[in-house]
Write the structure tokens for this entry.
Amino acid sequence: MRRVFRLRFARRHLEDEIDEELRFHLAMREQSLVARGMAADAARAAARKNFGDVATVRASLLTLDQERERTMQRATFVDELRQDLMYAGRMLRRNPVFTLVAVATLALGIGANTAIFALVDAALLRRLDVPQAEQLVAVGNTARVGARSSGGPRADLLSYPAYQELQRRSRSFAGILASGRTPRLFMTVESSSTEPENPRGRFVSGNYFQVLRVPAFLGRTLAADDDANVGASPVVVISHDYWTRRFDANRSAIGRTIRINGAAVTIVGVTPPGFSGEIVGTNADLWIPLTMQPVIMANDNLLKDPRDAWLLLLGRLAPRHSLEQATSELVALVPRVLNDISPDADFTRSVANLTRSDIYVGDGSRGFSSVRATFFAPLLTLMAGVAVLLLIVCANVANLLLARATARGREMTLRVALGAARWRIVRQLLTESALLSLLGAIAGVFVGWWGSKLLLDIGADGGGAIALNVAVSMPVALFTMVASLLAVVLFGLAPALTTSRVNLASAMRAQSRSVAGGRSSRGGRTSPTRVVIAAQVALSLLLLVGAGVLVRSMWSLQNADIGMDREHLLIANLDARAGGYTGERFPPLVQALVQRMQRLPGVVAVSASENGLFNGTESTSTMSFEGFVARTQDDSLANWDEVGPGYAHAIGSRIIEGRDLTAADHGGTGGGSVLINQTAAQFFFHGGPAVGRRMQMDSMFYEVVGVITDAQDHDLRAMPVRRVYFPLLTPLEIGPLRIIIRTSGNPAAMAPVVRREIIAQDRNLPIYGVEPLSTLLRYSIRAERLVAKLAVGFGALALLLASIGLYGVMSYAISQRTGEIGVRMALGARPADVVRMVLWDATRVVLVGLGVGLVISLFAMRLLSGQLYGVGALDPAAVITAVAVLLMSGALAAFVPAMRGARVPPVEALRES
Amino acid sequence: MLDQEGGLVRGTLDLLILKAVSWGPRHGYAVAEWIHYITERELLVEEGPLYTALHRLEKKGWLASEWGYSEANRRARFYRLSASGRRQLRTEASLWDRYARAVGRALAASVPSTA
């Protein structure tokens, strides 16, 4: 007690003591001088003279004493902390079951948060691991890393001529790099006869590594002159990871010649470990100079035409230039450059229509990523869900502690009686909580590390792996620390305060009875544990409703009528151009492949298209329709595809008007017949007859021969768009070719046979994949599926925790009311009455929680509505299910202790009380 | 050689204080009186520095203090030797003894060299 006093009034207190000590000395000296016969006044003066300068001595004493005091306080603090820790450790060891349950629960909560946050950090927050990443500025839509667009001018992707001009004319940058997607790469090592493999590569400008400031780990990186002349630099730089994986980290890899899609290139360098390119979510294995693109992709030069937009740019700001300056420069410069390089009047007209929002310039420090765009909203949703889960976990541990507080009531009474200050006891209890939390956090980091890997697997959903570096980085560690500190305060403070609130008098009177806990001393039933349980129920309801709504939304997506035979389509994805099938050679290839597939048993229909379904590309162009007057530029835009004979029948679409395309509509050099979808018919012909009307694209005329139902062919969530289907069987120069096979049985089972047929047709025709539509559909909603799955997981965990909490509280309440139950039964209550009484008791707590939870859900679920498909934010089915599930598990959790209470013989119950 | 604490060789006053309280708790005045008496008023010129030394020794942990009542029943601060203070007294005393004896021998010598 005295120490507390000293803490606050240390200086005053020390001064008083020094003064008293010195006064005593001077008085004694004076006295002795007087005793020797000196006059009182003279004695006082002599005593002072004898002493020396009192003020100086006093000052130095005060300094010494204050220093001593500080040292002591520090020692005391450390000492008490050690005591608290040792005591806490002993308490935790003495109750291994409690400790295990609490630590495991906390590890789950903290680990789940760490896992999700590690993903958030890796996908959304972290900067590229290059020097001064903050100086990078992205030009183009950073999500379109794998895109390529031919046609109208655009500024979300850039063409090679546009890049060259921007690099030459901009003044805000020390350098601008360009990078673009490669087709699937087939790599073989010279002088080894292994099967080709498919590394992930990227076409990059020669200054790529200079702009990023990434040095070579071995050999050299690319240099500016590596993209000076088209096809002149057959070199490649490989990543440290690929070098280790494929070349066994052997230095002799430098200088080796490898073949990429048939072209011989030399490995000139290896990048430093950890560098995986400028794209977050995909690790590049190798980098090829942009100017090698026409060599790697035979018959397809993407470097000349300003209409071939496929590059994203990353500029490094020149010294003393800001992002704002660069942005305003580029906003003005991009349209000017596009205008200057325009190949025709159409292009120039469209450039004039570009608005500010069409031009993408922004922070480039986090590189490019398509994963980021896909997972942004889902990750934030998950973050919110997992935070609620942590709250529930804290509530559970708080309840465990509160329950234990009862058991420790006597210990606390004793400590207070022995003179312990309340704040000391609170501190002791908080130390225990902190120790629990620390153990939970340590276990949680492991759970989190493992969990984030698991999340990536679930997120990839059988599709391509998501290559995020989810190492437990500094921000993640910091986050975990904050989360667990928060947990300590949340779950530790209330029990600590409750436990330490010991009323000595009543505690002594109660003697063997417990002090704090299930029922407050006021006799009411609103104990902290009940409040905590109600809160848990409320939060669980929130999670369960969220999970229910998300699952319903996912089901709607998966079962939506997409205007196609979704369960019976198999799509083979080929590259006609890379196989050498261009111009006149193209139509016979399509016909031969279609005929081969038609002969297979189990095949209902076969057709082909350029863009395919759900895995491919999209084409958009300006068109004009007979009798249709466009009011805006956008009005004359429509998506289009080139499709084979019998396409509508093959995908399982319905013909509303007219007929399907036939072999007779194909052939020739252009013009002819087209199909349009319902939306296009409505839009262009306002519901009037469409068949027989004429339309025009790229100065060629076509006649509409049929209208088919809308097919949701590339995005489940998008509204149906206007779509026009042109004949495919003409001498086209296209890369992607999709053979679409409608089967009678499971399409996946047909995949190997289809693959064999394609190889039998031409073993040099690249096959990018043979997959059922259902797989592609599932992959296209992988973010939604991830969120739904995890939300269900979180909901189940919340339910489990809330049930355990309720069970614990009801068990305790029964043990407290044994006496009362005994009296009731002695007075004639039947066991059923006792059970009913206890169940009602529990149900009330649950009902309060449900009420509060409904109100919270009402507000919280609105935030979710943007991510939902075909279901309302407060979907009645989801809410009713969640409420029912919670009520049932609440009843179940209370039923077991209720039965136990009812079975106690009255005599024993009375004796116990 | 001399410092401000009463013109004593550094450490001598400390040693005397430790010795003064080695028989039991004493207040500052009693310590002063004992030093005056035992050294025949040779060593402690001013009494103020004595208190600085007392507090310094307490900070070092060689002395502990508590409040009690003097013979005349006045409240006074009593110093007593702590365990580490007692150890310190023993070492310092033996050091001092060896030093004094060595100097004494040197001064009593009558031979100019070791040869």
Summary: The domain at 13-104 of chain B is CATH 1.10.10.10 (Arc Repressor Mutant, subunit A). The interface with chain A takes residues 27-29, 32, 46-49, 51-52, 55-56, 58-59, 67, 70, 74-77 of chain B (CB under 8 Å).
